[in-house]
Write a structure and sequence with these properties.
Elements: E1 7-9, H1 12-16, H2 19-27, E2 29-31, E3 73-75, H3 77-82, H4 93-120, H5 122-130, H6 139-165, H7 187-205, H8 209-231, H9 238-241, E4 244-247, E5 252-254, H10 282-295, H11 306-310, E6 316-320, H12 327-345, E7 349-353, H13 365-378, E8 383-389, H14 391-394, H15 405-419, E9 429-435, H16 443-446, E10 451-454, H17 461-472, H18 491-500, H19 508-521, H20 527-540, H21 546-560, H22 567-571, H23 581-589, H24 597-644
Parallel strand pairs: 1-4, 6-9, 6-10, 7-8, 8-9
Antiparallel strand pairs: 2-3, 4-5
Helix pairs in contact: 2-4, 4-6, 6-7, 6-8, 7-8, 10-12, 10-18, 13-15, 19-20, 21-24
Amino acid sequence: MSLTSDQMELREEDIRKHYDAAVAMLDGFDHTPRIAKGKDPVATPERSSGIGARRRFRSTTPGLVTRSTARPEGVHLVERIEGAGGEDPLVSPVQANVLHGMRRALAIALAVGENFAEGSGLADLKRDNLAGALGADKKTAFSELLAAEALAVGYVFANATSFLLAPLLGEAQVEVGEVEEVLTDNAQLALHGALWELDQDIAALVSDEDRLVACICAFAEQLMEKVALRAQNAPQLGAFVGASWKVEADALTINGFTPARAAKGSTLTMSFKKPNEVVGNHIAKYQAMKLAKMLMAYDFDRRLNPFAELGGFIFTFMGDGAPGTGKTTLIQMMAGLINDYCQVAGYAFRYQNFGIDNIDSYQGKSGQNAKAFVQNVLDPQVIGFGTIDDIDQIAGKRGDRQSSAGQQEVTAVFMEAFAGANTVVRGNCTFGMFSNYPENVDDALRQRAGARFLVDGPQTQEDYIDILALLMGKNHDIALGDHTLFEAQAIQKAVAASFESHSRPHEPGLLNVFDNVHGQVGELDTIAKMGTYLKAIQEADPRFTGRAIKNITDAVKVRAMDFELPDVWMEQPELFLQKDYDTKSAMISELRVPITTEMVVQEINRYADSEFRYADKSDEVAISNMVRDMQRSEAAKRRYLEGKA
């Protein structure tokens, strides 16, 4: 058993003693809906031909007008689930697994509720209340604790259900809509409300076994989201959010209102590329190779990466370049490296791409898709790599009328996930945003990319010879000629030359700023002089804010980690990957190099170059569009006057 210092074991006997209560709930209970309305109302028959059914009675007695007149309904989930497979009278393996999973989830939720009651003092208040000895001064706290227990139990039930049934999911998808019957009077009523609404969804939306599992899992996800939202302003939840439980038999970790995900990697079918098959893009390739190895330093017991603690970990990056310069190849190379390393180490690797097909016309669905993507990659039980290709088409600029509501939702989700108040960088995953037109990405979202990978493709004569020879393959007899194949792709030599080239800016606008500051203060060899340079950049481009400075300093820390973890560490797990966290951290610290003024100036220029490049392109596009609109207006006016004459 592997428990971290802040985890408690949820004992198997504490779970199994609630099995009878869980089975009783699944077998049947009566529930009067308070908030939601049934999805499959039974039509009231007419009293006689031509005369409609009587309207529902509405009380006129003061105080009773707003009371619900809905009748109690019997909820029999066992029968409902067993009837979801068609005409077969026998219970199928899928139905049996679903029922076992839900019984287990209910029992886990009740066990956590019991732990919460003991830890928060609610159990004592319940005993006093039963004995009629609950003082008036304790009634408010009693009600608040009952509501907190209801939220905790409801969330754990949904969390455990989603976790336990995830292996049964197929390709089917079911839209259940928003969960409404979220009750907080007490834990039992909360579970009754959730099970009643789930029964309604199954009755209305399920026609076969595949849709049964998809419906229950979709309901669990919606219930988790609704309960977590309700819990944001609820009091007395400290005993739940401040604790963590491990269910060893299921490998399930319950950590407050954080969804548990199974440590399941994705099966990759992409065509991987080797580093020597990526021609040009020297800095981008070098940083991608380093980042792939950085991810492997993640410690699953501590749930932290030494690089994230020491500095130099790249949580988000943006790769930009013209079409055809190799962004997809870079993704294939990095995913292939991480996949190979994880197979050697025995880690679960999850790769996921968020594409244009995740933008949905259904209101709120695009945001849900983005949240699910982020949560899947962030899962602390796996090594994650998430990519957002063509992000300029996926995430809309705020205030842009041409952006759909779905694109605006995605932008809001990514901004919160990548650098929001609740963002926690553990160092087990990284997100890469790629675009041919990064100037079309919202400024604030683009600045959340901590590193910039300029994907400029082959540049030199040697690069073009290398890429031609590579793509031609071996099925020909054409001589190579006077050339040493791939010598120009020697990574250390190429990277040193690329970094050196950023000692001076590349963009004309930034070069003017650099020359002016250099003429005033001389060499940028002190923090004061570099700060003067940064202020001058901000005056030239107001979008160069404090976040830009943070991204630059993070990039400098990456340069301080300007070393590659030895390949042998990736090939023989016992040398590094299987070491404890403190040993890994000490081994990495020994490899660090000192930060120099040259590093800082080069990283300022690299980052500012990219911002000036984006701004210049963005302004040019805006000007071109305005000119085209003016020309159209003038041509239309001229044609109108000619027709009138």
